[in-house]
Amino acid sequence: MHSRSAALTPPLGFDPELFPNLPNGYDGNIYDSEAAALAAAKQAVFGPSGIHAALSLEQICGGVYISADLSFVAGGGAGEINFFDSGTYPLANFPGMSILFFKAIKGVCIDGRIARTLDVAYAPGYILRCTQTSVANISLSGPSETRPSGTGGSAVATLTAKVTDSTAPKAGVAVQFSVDVTPNSGGHEHHDAARLKGTLSGTQGITDANGEVKVTFIATEVAGTHTVKATCATCANSPATKEIQVKVPDLLPISPNAPQNADGTFVYALTSVDKTHQGNGRYHHNQYYLTEQSRQNLRAMISDFAAEGWGTVALNDASLYWGGRYDITSNWKAPHAGHREGREIDISFARAGNPISAPKQKVFYDKFCKNKKVSFPFSILHHYVKNPHFHVYLEKQTACWTSEK
To answer: Per its UniProt record, what InterPro entries does this chain match (predicted)?
Structure first.
């Protein structure tokens, strides 16, 4: 804010010589607020205290005011000002401007004593204009979700930081970007410095004519919640943040409450409870998630297995509830090459108290895969030496094969 001298039209029609003129040092100064500007005006008129000093009767009778004060009359139709004993005076003003207004009480003396008082009003011609710097604000917008890398579809999200001055875009503003990942998010119930997190296409930029600067977030193979931060040194609300969930969408759980056969045995059992696989154990509590199509195909597969006398089907690992890399040893590495999209599951031979003999494994594999005597919408990888199990592709795949590992 600042004040400056300006002629009032029409001028106030009473004797300005009776009233003080503000020092030139006040004219044109810059102030942070209207209160600061008013305080400076009072100090200019009344001295360092900014308060009209108490006077002696001799001073009052000599023409000095009994009391005096300054105020601002705000713009936008300030209305009528009362002064002297001649009624009111219309004072026009403009929005965003204030007129410095002097008001005092004058004593009229007879024989060295105050016979009566007069109210005095005076506008010394100083106008306060609001030149307050408008406040810049920053926002960060863009997608709230993207897929983990390696799971098909887009693994990037383009975000836009926008700086506005009131409602207008502000060009030429420096913006810095950073990203972090929320611990224990995305189904990974462990966290350390080795955890992979998304990256950004850049860490800084300058807003264009639209007040915008863009940055691209690139997801990793590990699902989780990331927060991108946009920082602007001159923005009142800095930093602005945007949360991005890195996930395979719409994965659904396999119910832990398996139905029972007529003989009381369970149709399937969720079995990853040992420390090797970490299911329902130390770190990963939610690794039985599939797409809806895979869940349907799994039910069909279990029915086909039951018809072949399989017994209780032991379900090992599917996908974490947001998909992405499933680090079964909780070290962010990927011994499970698949298990990322909710379309694959492991079938155990020994877990669930239903071991399947090696000959029966071979017969089963030959019938379902080699000889194709049973039609089903999935394919099987038979791991048959170390920890024998089937890795079942519930969607997309059609071939079957074996592995000695």
So the answer is: Ig-like_fold, Invasin/intimin_cell_adhesion, Zn_M74/Hedgehog-like
Residues 6+ apart with CB under 8 A from 48: none
The owner of tokens 């990331």 is 226
Determine the Cα–Cα distance for residues 398 and 379; give it in Å rounded to an integer: 5
Q: How far apart are CA 134 and CA 137, in angstroms?
A: 10
> Facing residues of 218 across strands?
156, 199
Which comes out higher in pLDDT, residue 242 or 359? 242
Provide the CATH number for the domain around residue 350: 3.30.1380
* 0.90 exceeded by pTM: no
In this structure, the number of other CB atoms found within 10 A of the CB of residue 215 comes to 23
Within this chain, do residues 234 and 289 fall inside the same structural domain, yes or no?
Answer: no
**Is residue 277 located within the same domain as residue 383?**
yes
Q: 212 and 264 share a domain?
A: no
* Structural domain harbouring 374: 252-403
Q: Would you say 367 and 382 are in contact if contact means Cβ atoms under 8 Å apart? A: no
Same domain, yes or no, for 230 and 296? no
pLDDT in tens, 72-88: 766 544 455 544 444 45
CA separation for the pair 223, 320 (Å, rounded): 9
Average pLDDT across the chain, whole number: 76
pLDDT tens digit sequence for 135-182: 789 999 999 999 999 898 899 999 999 999 877 898 999 999 999 999
Q: How would you classify residue 267: left for phi > 0, otherwise alpha for psi between -120 and 50, otherwise beta?
A: alpha
Report the greatest alpha carbon distance in the chain. 133
Q: What is the distance between the alpha carbons of residues 14 and 405, in angstroms, rounded to a whole number? A: 107
